Amino acid sequence: MASVTLRGIRKAFDRTEIIKGIDLDIADKEFVVFVGPSGCGKSTLLRLIAGLEDVSAGEILIDGRVVNNTAPKDRNIAMVFQSYALYPHMTVARNMGFGLRAAKTPTSEIDRRVGEAAAMLGLESLLQRRPGELSGGQRQRVAMGRAIVRDPEVFLFDEPLSNLDAQLRNQVRTDIKKLHQQVRTTSIYVTHDQVEAMTLADRIVLLRDGRIEQVGTPIELFTCPANRFVARFIGSPSMNIIPAQIDDNEIVLPWMRLPTPPLATRPTDGRIELGIRPDDLLTGAACHSVPEAYRFTAEVRVVEPMGAESQLIVSVGGQDLQLRLMGRLFPKPGERIACALDPAELHVFDATTGVAIGQRHISLQ
Amino acid sequence: MSTWLSRQTLARKQAVWAWIFLAVPIVYFTAVRFWPAVDAFSLSLSRWNLVGPRHFVGLENYRHLAADPVFWQVLGNTFEYLALGLPISLFLAFVIAYQLDRVRTGQGVLRALYFLPHLTTATAMAWVWRWFYQPAPVGLFNGWLSLFGIAQQPFLRSTAQALPAVLVPAIWAALGFQVVIFLAGLKAIPRSYYEAAEIDGAGSWQILREITLPLLLPSFVFLFITTSIGLLRIFDLVYNITAGGEGGPLNATKPLVLSIYQSAFARMDMGTASAQTVILFVILLAISLLQMRLLRQR
Question: Which of A74, A87, A99 is closest, CB to CB, to B193?
Answer without folding.
Answer: A87
